[in-house]
Design a protein that fits this description.
- By secondary structure, the chain is of the alpha/beta class.
- The chain has 10 helices and 10 strands.
- A hairpin with a 5-residue loop joins strand 1 (about 10) and strand 2 (about 15).
- It binds NADP nicotinamide-adenine-dinucleotide phosphate (NAP).
- NADP nicotinamide-adenine-dinucleotide phosphate (NAP) binds next to helix 9.
Length: about 280
């Protein structure tokens, strides 16, 4: 059986921890504190973005952690107003500056923003930056298959990762299978599915939590891992940051996984990446 505490290898040979600390809605000052906490607890992947406004805090936390830079896997994303070759390059350089590092491990296009029609050119800028060693891996976020196919047609490269909304209520089985066939790793954002309703009270989740003497959140995080997704839960609280990482001492059964799969509604909680909103 796959050791889920070991990194997963991307289609470009880069190894990524399967669980990371997400930082959306964590301000710059808080980010320094919470990322330091996460790193001290064993997290080795930190997910930030230009749009989160906390890259300075994240960079400070990495510097203060006492860990060597190579021990921490840093991911960031360029925002929608930085599509296009020149703007993408400038956005990457600004992220490097704010993070206080000479490279980002995985850099992503935050949204395809199809109304701009520039995501292919933007991805080409990421590939150039990868050649130069400014990033180690070129990924995307919120891309639909049609966007990924365009990128592949133009560059011959499948992005290494597609970070998408994914949780038990919207668990995207078709997209996950489509990614797997092409060697693209699926990374789950909003993994706890708490934007509407609460998946934490679902019978399938509560039963598994009781059976394994774990919390509902730990069951959901473990479900992501056993479904081969990289998962990046966010919490502003140290005890929850610790709880969310304590998921390597139990395994869900096939039946428990299937019951959680069955919670899928097929409906997004977030924005439609194919629409005009972004
Ligand atoms: N690419 C994209 O477009 C995109 C979009 C959204 C998010 N993301 C990334 O994905 C990461 C995760 O997504 P997210 O932050 O939206 O949602 P999430 O991780 O699914 O959920 C975060 C929420 O769950 C709560 N929580 C965390 N651990 C908990 C626990 N053990 N028990 C009870 N509640 C808990 C947090 O509250 P407290 O903080 O109060 O503990 C927070 O309200 C983000 O931080 C970001 O890095 C990417």
């Amino acid at each position: 059986m796959t050791d889920l505490s070991a990194p997963i290898t991307l289609n470009d040979g880069v190894a990524v921890p399967r669980i990371g600390y997400g930082t959306y809605k964590v301000g710059d000052d808080d980010a320094q504190r919470t990322v330091e906490t996460a790193l001290s607890l064993g997290y080795r992947l930190v997910d930030t973005a230009e749009m989160y406004g906390n890259e300075v805090g994240v960079g400070r936390a990495v510097a203060a952690s006492g860990l060597a830079r190579e021990e921490v896997f840093l991911t960031s994303k360029l925002w929608n107003d930085h599509h296009g070759r020149r703007k993408a390059r400038a956005a990457l350089e600004a992220s490097l500056e704010r993070l206080g590092t000479d490279h980002i491990d995985l850099f992503m296009i935050h949204w395809p923003s199809p109304k701009q029609g520039l995501y292919v050119e933007t991805f080409e800028a990421l590939l150039e930056a990868r050649e130069e060693g400014l990033i180690r891996s070129a990924g995307v976020s919120n891309f639909l298959p049609e966007h990924l196919e365009r990128v592949h047609e133009a560059t011959g490269v499948w992005p290494s990762v597609n970070q998408v909304e994914l949780h038990p209520y919207f668990n995207q089985p078709e997209l996950r299978a489509w990614h797997a066939e092409r060697g693209i790793v699926t990374e789950s954002w909003g993994p706890l599915g708490q934007r509407t309703g609460s998946v934490l009270h679902e019978r399938a989740v509560v039963d598994a939590a009781t059976a394994h003497e774990k919390t509902a959140v730990q069951v959901i995080i473990r479900w992501h891992l056993q479904r081969d997704c990289v998962v990046i839960p966010k919490s502003a609280h140290a005890e929850r940051i610790a709880e969310n990482f304590a998921v390597f001492d139990f395994a869900l059964t096939d039946e428990e996984l299937a019951r959680i799969d069955a919670l899928d509604t097929g409906e997004r909680q977030g924005i439609d990446p194919g629409g005009d909103e972004r």
